[in-house]
Amino acid sequence: MWGGGVTVGTSALMRLFSQLMPPPSTQAGEQRDTEPTRMQMPPGNPLLLSHTLQELLARDTVQVELIPEKKGLFLKHVEYEVSSQRFRSSVYRRYNDFVVFHETLLHKFPYRMVPALPPKRMLGADREFIEARRRALRRFINLVARHPPFSEDVVLKLFLSFSGPDVQNKLKESAQWVGDEFLNCKLATRAKDFLPADIQAQFAASRELIRNIYNSFYKLRDRAERIASRATDSAADLLVFGKELSALGSDTTPLPSWAALNSSTWGSLKQALKGLSVEFALLADKAAQQGKQEENDVVEKLNLFLDLLQSYKDLCERHEKGVLHKHQRALHKYSLMKKQMMSAAVQSREPEAVEQLESRIVEQENAIQTMELRNYFSLYCLHQETQLVHVYLPLTSHILGAFVNSQIQGHKEMSQVWNDLKPKLSSLFAGPHSTLTPPRSPPEDSARPH
Fold this sequence. Notes:
This protein has 16 helices and three strands. By secondary structure, it is mostly helical. Strands 1-2-3 form a three-stranded antiparallel β-sheet.
């Protein structure tokens, strides 16, 4: 836009002043051209994703298992065995390895949904915290392994398959001389051409929708946790209930003489009570299995979806506070330089000073152009990441199906145990003439609506 130098004299300064152009854009999302060709989606638009949920889930399944190493009485060091079906690999990783991997992803893909890592707890990390962190790391690595751009990047393959002594340095070396996705994507400078005209409105609407979905699923996850926890608590209560019945049936305290007439009744009762502990232990086992199944198949899948939604929210924050903010700052700086150039033209400053100011303006225009291109590329990626979130939405049916199946199966199995238990109560209901007299509900209770 500018020439290589500035001639000496007021006339040259005025010519330079007359060449000052408006900034490339006054707002990050403002269009600089209104040609109808840019409004149309080009054929074979790379902006659109064609993946299904089944295809994403089939990309890889990564297991993260805990391998603790004890030193003394306290847990000092934790390692994880990370196994990938896709790479047919099994490697050992520490939490800090995940941290470096996460930082590398953010460096290479700043405009993509990079899931957050669970927090690092320095002191007092009990086994419950360690197990929760293991689950969170497993969710993290599976979301990354199934993300389209991440799954094709060398850094993921390194993390899942490199078995050398220092994976952290290997990860850093792989990204040391490689720029981010904007510098390596062939379509980065053309991202604006693929965006719809109302991209800003779409971005705002999508962000609001994802925020609402996140809030609802957060509440669903909390209720699912409580339901699974109640099943676990019920298992513990049933087990204690059966043990107390067994203890009562195993009591060896002799009968006093005045109760000897009913010794046969007490003996038969004790024998029946002692035998009931087996069924109650079985009931406790069924309830514990149901709680564990709901924890793994319902709560964990809800947590996975929440992690994905949170990464989308984080991405929106990075877009606004990152490239968009830098773009706005560059525009502001450009405006200040224009005012300085106007002042220089009016005051007829020294040519060297004007030349330096001209050079700075050229540099700032280049920076603005780069920021604007990055801003549109960020919106381009956001558009794709929004589609990716919607690809994951059918996971809701998987979660609800797992919840319903768990309830049906759990109640069915427990109902069978209760039905098997009922005939064994006959000795408890034996009357004076050995006739069964089980307790019955009063007529008014049975007729009362439930």
